[in-house]
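DM from R.C. (forwarded with permission)

"hey, sorry to bug you on a friday — could you get me a structure for this? deadline for the figure draft is monday and I only need the backbone to look sensible"
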Amino acid sequence: MHHHHGYVWLGSGHDLLRDGPRRPIHPEFTSSRVVPLELAHWLLKPSAFVQGTWTDPKQAADWFGDRAREHADSFASGHDRAPDRLRARARGAGEAVAAGEDVAGGWYLTGQRFLSVCLIACDPHRLRPEIGCPQRRR
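My reply, with the result:
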């Protein structure tokens, strides 16, 4: 059944500059929680990295919005912090999930940190149908 998995990464913005561990061919890829360069590659990571799974677009969007709001006070940009902006991002996430698309939210935080919140389509992923569901690989 078609569903979306949720992933969160909060770490040093400097880790985003190291693209080696963000590629599946790198030896650290599966153990690294840093955001992969290609969103579908989240599905290649261990199932323990999955923060939630949804078939309902509204539930997925609510989770996405909640994760962003949890950190909004630390967003480096006041524009991104605005409640209307966060609501719009969550609403857009729900629309994307309903269309079977991936959702990527990324925000720089104070202290040179970066927050990534992603919803990744699964079973199948429309751009990478060959990648199986991480929860079935256990």
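R.C.: lifesaver. The mean pLDDT is 95.
me: no worries. The chain has three helices and four strands.
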